[in-house]
Amino acid sequence: MLQFFCIQPPGSDMDGVQATPISDALDLNTALGRLRALTASCNIWRLLAGYASQAPTVPLESGCILRSPDSLRTICLLPGFIRKSIANFTTKHAQFTSFELLQDMYSRMSKAEHQRYIVQVYNNDGLAGLQLLNDVYVVHLAPVGVPCHGPPADLRNLARAMSGVLRGLAALHSEGFVHRDVRWPNVIFLPAEKRWLLIDLEHAGLNDCDCSGAPYPLQVWSERTLDPGGKYTFRSDLRMVAEQLMMCGGFELDEGGKDLRRQLLAGQLTAAAALEHEWLVGAAAE
Questions:
Q1: For residue 278, what pLDDT is reported?
Q2: Where in the chain is the domain with CATH 1.10.510.10?
């Protein structure tokens, strides 16, 4: 017997890989069964060939390891999740974010009301949560998406991307955390769901944390990022959204986008309130 399935990676509910039948069970011992198997194979090939020209570029092959310039950080794409590691964690990274804070934050982000809106720890083969072994930080993360290297090509999708990022920030902020590294490389696009997701929480901190001295500022912060007194707050994250994500090289923001950006820079909105802005609501309704 032969049957074809569509294999789907874990979704935002982290329920695991799903296999959905896309053909009947075909009996290869009969001429009719073999003919139907050949027909199904040809149809699947046609679908894949038609999709190939529209499929996103795969930036990382399965099993391939990418290293940061200092070789301390690695990411590896594995079936259904990303394996991320940071070597020399205690001496090189804990000055930004402690292991204990990351444990607490990822645990809170796993609540049902947050799971869809921000990257999640993926439990694989009984290895649940974060690990710190021999001073190497390891975490498995899902879902897997297409990394963003800049804004989408049009205003409508830019607004949708902003909604995705703001939902992630709203989740973090509701639990008292700030992201502190909001920029396009820390956003992914999920093609199957046509939405954007905030990732890379390893520089997160607590709201109103003192970032006035070393090892701060982070590389992409501006003179407007911190609040008076050198404090990084919820407003700081939203100013990063305005400065890092809403500066569009290929096109100009329309009046609605400019108004949202102005309010974010001025610290007039929370992440949750920003999601109610007419510019974002209008794009979601289209």
A1: 95
A2: 65-285
Longest C-alpha distance within the chain, in Å?
79
65-285 adopts what CATH topology?
Answer: Transferase(Phosphotransferase); domain 1 (1.10.510)
Report the C-alpha gap between 179 and 212 in whole angstroms: 17
Q: Spell out where the chain has E strands.
A: 5-8, 18-21, 65-67, 73-78, 81-86, 120-121, 131-133, 136-142, 146-147, 177-178, 187-190, 195-198, 205-206, 209-210, 231-232
**Any idea which residue has 């198997």 for tokens?**
37
What tens digit of pLDDT does each residue of 95-109 get?
A: 999 999 999 999 999
Q: Which is nearest to 234 in space by CA: 264, 207, 197? A: 207
Q: Cα 41–42–47 angle (5° rounding)? A: 100
Q: What is the pTM of this model?
A: 0.81
